[in-house]
Amino acid sequence: MAVDIKNLNHNQLNDLISKAQVRQNELRKEKVVKLREKVHAMIKAEGYSFEDIFGSPRGKAKRSTGTVAPKYRNPANPAQTWSGRGKRPHWFNDALKAGKKEKDLAI
């Protein structure tokens, strides 16, 4: 099935290219599925599970995102605190510019 690309116009070439890319992606996915099946079969033949070899699947072990105790307090407004994580608050940067040190703002 040879296609003579010299006789195709611009739209026909674009159509051919997009169809070829779709088919290429399909072939790649088929190959990945076959390879995955081979790997699982090899692991099973050795008497192990996938988790034994590669650990738990991604997304299962989530980090705890609990609250963190504040490390710094705004001397001008004690209600404003910062844990030291993430972007520095404006009041913290302003205090540093005014000559204070981080340890001066520590709780």
TrEMBL record:
<dbReference type="GO" id="GO:0009295">
    <property type="term" value="C:nucleoid"/>
</dbReference>
<dbReference type="GO" id="GO:0001217">
    <property type="term" value="F:DNA-binding transcription repressor activity"/>
</dbReference>
<keyword id="KW-0963">Cytoplasm</keyword>
<feature type="compositionally biased region" description="Basic and acidic residues">
    <location>
        <begin position="97"/>
        <end position="107"/>
    </location>
</feature>
<keyword id="KW-0238">DNA-binding</keyword>
<dbReference type="InterPro" id="IPR037150">
    <property type="entry name" value="H-NS_C_dom_sf"/>
</dbReference>
<dbReference type="InterPro" id="IPR027444">
    <property type="entry name" value="H-NS_C_dom"/>
</dbReference>
<feature type="domain" description="DNA-binding protein H-NS-like C-terminal">
    <location>
        <begin position="60"/>
        <end position="107"/>
    </location>
</feature>
<dbReference type="GO" id="GO:0000976">
    <property type="term" value="F:transcription cis-regulatory region binding"/>
</dbReference>
<dbReference type="GO" id="GO:0005829">
    <property type="term" value="C:cytosol"/>
</dbReference>
<dbReference type="GO" id="GO:0003680">
    <property type="term" value="F:minor groove of adenine-thymine-rich DNA binding"/>
</dbReference>
<feature type="region of interest" description="Disordered">
    <location>
        <begin position="56"/>
        <end position="107"/>
    </location>
</feature>
<dbReference type="GO" id="GO:0032993">
    <property type="term" value="C:protein-DNA complex"/>
</dbReference>
<protein>
    <submittedName>
        <fullName>DNA-binding protein H-NS</fullName>
    </submittedName>
</protein>
<comment type="similarity">
    <text>Belongs to the histone-like protein H-NS family.</text>
</comment>
<dbReference type="GO" id="GO:0003681">
    <property type="term" value="F:bent DNA binding"/>
</dbReference>
<dbReference type="Pfam" id="PF00816">
    <property type="entry name" value="Histone_HNS"/>
</dbReference>
